[in-house]
Amino acid sequence: LNFTHHADLLYSKANQKLGLLRRTCHFVQNIRKKRALYLSLVRSLFEHCPIVWRPSATSTIDKLETIQKHAFKWILNDIHVSFSSTYMYYVQCKQFNILPIRFRFDYHDLKFFHSVVHGFSCVTLPEYIKPFTGSSLRSSHLDSKSFVSSVTPKNLTTMSNSASK
């Protein structure tokens, strides 16, 4: 499944809402209030079922991150601030106590996996994913909290077949 079109629609909708915030809330000067407006009206769009539509392409995730970068400029009242460096963007995220969107997607995936593993969800783990029960060797980095899959990725299967010929 490809949800790129859905992500593009969300990008457009978030951009419209951020533009509306800029135009109608120009009188709000408090950074905490602007942050709350952004989180409730714009960022909340990306929080609805992200484990279903999460984009896998880095370019699509970067596109969604630009919304947050524009929001930070609005919150700071500084349109000249640059987030061309990933480090500076992460520093700003930390200052506002907001996860970058790509990490927020990871968080939702991990939270869902945790709920499945511990039986808090009606979804169950597929039979090919099992907890690791072997010996924990340093080289394998596996321990009692690890999971292993009995499914071999296609590219590894074709590589091993071509190497044996």
Q: What characteristics describe this protein?
A:
165 residues, elongated, mainly alpha, two-stranded antiparallel ribbon, 57% helix, 2 strands
What's the SSE blueprint?
Blueprint: H1 4-24, H2 31-41, H3 50-53, H4 58-76, H5 86-96, H6 101-117, E1 129-131, E2 147-149, H7 154-164
Antiparallel strand pairs: 1-2
Helix pairs in contact: 1-4, 2-4
Overview of the structural elements:
This protein has helices at 4-24, 31-41, 50-53, 58-76, 86-96, 101-117, 154-164; strands at residues 129-131, 147-149. The chain contains 7 helices and 2 strands, in the order H-H-H-H-H-H-E-E-H. Helix content is 57%, strand content 4%. It has a two-stranded antiparallel sheet. The model has no long low-confidence stretch (mean pLDDT 88). The protein is elongated, with a radius of gyration of 21 Å. Helix 1 packs parallel to helix 4 (58-76). The chain is mainly α. The two termini are 34 Å apart.
